[in-house]
Specification:
Elements lengths: L2 H21 L1 H4 L6 H9 L20 E4 L2 E3 L2 H11 L6 E5 L5 H9 L2 E6 L2 H13 L5 E5 L12 E6 L8 H5 L1 E11 L6 E7 L5 E11 L17 E3 L1
Parallel strand pairs: 3-4, 3-6, 4-5, 6-7
Antiparallel strand pairs: 1-2, 7-8, 8-9, 9-10
């Protein structure tokens, strides 16, 4: 398949995202996603973030396997979680769960800097190489347990979590700036909810459940480790 074909498929994917958004508008309390988010989804080459053997399916509105027991997130979920963060061009963002780097690339299109934490060495290396090849110089990755965040670069304007803890990790709440937002799936395996977290200027934290999701679990053991500079989601 050539780049022109992939470009057409990206546009079709965006239209599917818009349609899916309309279907769940009552749950997410919005009728549409921000234009900037949809433009980023239409720009980032998702086929570069999946194994070559399944590139033909790269723009399907579904999660896809990327190896290591992980998946690349469903495009609608990527777009929705990105939209919830209400990213600004000056934002410093923490992502937990780099995977192959697709969500990081979307974030990097909209924010100033993205720090992304991945627990698997193999995925972190592949993501770093791929993002570098595609010219994303505002993303920094590390190999570490994302439960503990990345304290060295905290606090963050926004936090994106792409693996599900049972409860929202206190270190991530602590590393979120006053006035910041977090999108995080949380809950037991069969009862996860996508949660929108807001931290007020006074440090008070509020949460709102958005809709049911199913994510890979977030590893919650081990000790903090920022690591040296160097799965995902399924709608139910």
């Amino acid at each position: 398949m050539n780049e022109e074909t992939f470009s057409v498929q990206r546009q079709q994917m965006v239209h599917e995202i818009m349609g899916h958004t309309a279907q769940v508008a009552g749950h997410i309390e919005k009728s549409g996603l921000a234009t900037r988010v949809l433009e980023a989804m239409a720009k980032v080459p998702r086929h570069e973030f999946v194994p070559v053997e399944i590139q033909a399916y790269a723009y399907a509105n579904s999660p896809l396997p990327i190896g290591y027991g992980k998946t690349i997130s469903q495009p609608f979920i990527v777009a929705l979680m990105t939209d919830l963060l209400d990213l600004r061009e000056t934002d410093i963002v923490l992502e937990i769960g780099t995977g192959f780097g697709y969500q990081a690339a979307i974030l990097a299109e909209l924010a100033h800097k993205v720090y992304s934490v991945e627990i698997l060495d193999e995925l972190a290396v592949e993501a770093r190489n791929r993002l570098g090849r595609l010219g994303y110089d505002n993303i920094e990755t590390c190999v570490a347990n994302g439960y503990h965040g990345w304290a060295e670069h905290a606090p963050f304007d926004k936090i994106m979590v792409t693996a599900a803890p049972e409860l929202i990790p206190p270190p991530l709440i602590n590393q979120l700036k006053p006035g910041g937002h977090m999108a995080v799936p949380a809950g037991l395996k069969d009862s996860q909810q996508l949660v929108f977290v807001s931290k007020g200027a006074d440090g008070r934290v509020t949460t709102r459940e958005i809709l049911a999701v199913r994510f890979s679990p977030l590893e919650e053991t081990g000790t903090p480790d920022s690591g040296p500079p160097l799965s995902h989601t399924l709608m139910t």
